[in-house]
């Protein structure tokens, strides 16, 4: 089975990706690969950041590896916060700060269309390949959540659903989400390429 290093320290992402790639590839974490320290993310596109993170791992290991980058793209804000979604309200802001800023920016807006987009960059033998997942939806006017919720989950309602991402079981969210779709494309590619 293929071994791939996943360029993230996020435990939830590692679990999600391991489940999706079960039987297709063995996922190695950064610490298992002996890689520590912050990976730079300074590009101005999702594709650029995914490439930058995967390249960081490739240059240090020359092992097959991949990285992902996600952004929330809001129509009425010309695609913002996009690649800056994690730090929309400032460098060390919380999920709540980001949501407050977003709801403020869209106060009174009729067009509340938005999408989440994930780009995965896979590097094998030094060559990069990209896989993209996207989910369209709406930004709600207030939080809809049973608990904490990840990122913008409490204010994002995917099309064809009447609840926010934060209100649905994680298994349902993962089956329709941007990251879930991108990982599925990666899994299909790895299945057919092996
Ligand atoms: P990352 O590239 O996966 O780290 O995502 C960047 C930022 O986008 C995160 O810090 C979150 O604010 C937001 N984000 C990414 N994925 C999701 C999601 O599934 N739900 C809500 N927000 C997300």
Explain the layout of strands and helices.
Blueprint (H helix, E strand, L loop, with lengths): L1 E5 L4 H10 L4 E4 L17 H16 L3 E10 L6 E2 L12 H11 L7 E12 L2 E13 L16 E3 L11 H7 L1 H16 L1
Parallel strand pairs: 1-2, 1-3
Antiparallel strand pairs: 3-4, 3-5, 5-6, 6-7
Note down, in words, how this protein is organized.
Helices cover 31% and strands 25% of the residues. The protein contains five helices and seven strands, in the order E-H-E-H-E-E-H-E-E-E-H-H. It has helices at 11-20, 46-61, 95-105, 170-176, 178-193; strands spanning 2-6, 25-28, 65-74, 81-82, 113-124, 127-139, 156-158. Strands 1, 2, 3, 4, 5, 6 and 7 form a seven-stranded mixed beta sheet that branches. Helix 4 crosses helix 5. The radius of gyration is 17 Å and the shape is globular. Bound molecules: inosinic acid.
Characteristics of this structure?
alpha/beta; binds inosinic acid; 7 strands; about 190 residues; seven-stranded mixed sheet; 5 helices
């Amino acid at each position: 089975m293929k071994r791939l290093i996943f360029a993230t320290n996020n435990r939830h992402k590692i679990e999600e990706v391991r489940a999706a790639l079960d039987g297709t590839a063995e996922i190695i974490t950064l610490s298992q690969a002996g890689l520590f320290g912050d990976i730079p993310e300074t590009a101005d596109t999702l594709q650029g950041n995914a490439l930058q993170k995967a390249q960081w791992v490739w240059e240090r290991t020359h092992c097959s590896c991949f990285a992902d980058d996600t952004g929330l793209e809001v129509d009425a804000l010309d695609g913002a916060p996009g690649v800056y979604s994690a730090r929309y309200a400032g460098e060390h802001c919380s999920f709540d700060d980001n949501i407050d800023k977003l709801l403020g920016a869209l106060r009174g807006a009729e067009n509340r269309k938005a999408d989440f987009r994930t780009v995965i960059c896979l590097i094998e033998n030094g060559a990069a390949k990209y896989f993209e997942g996207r989910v369209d939806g709406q930004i709600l006017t207030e939080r809809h959540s049973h608990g904490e919720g990840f990122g913008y989950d409490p204010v994002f309602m995917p099309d064809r659903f009447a609840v926010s991402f934060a209100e649905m079981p994680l298994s349902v969210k993962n089956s329709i989400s941007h990251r879930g779709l991108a990982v599925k494309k990666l899994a299909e590619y790895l299945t057919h390429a092996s």
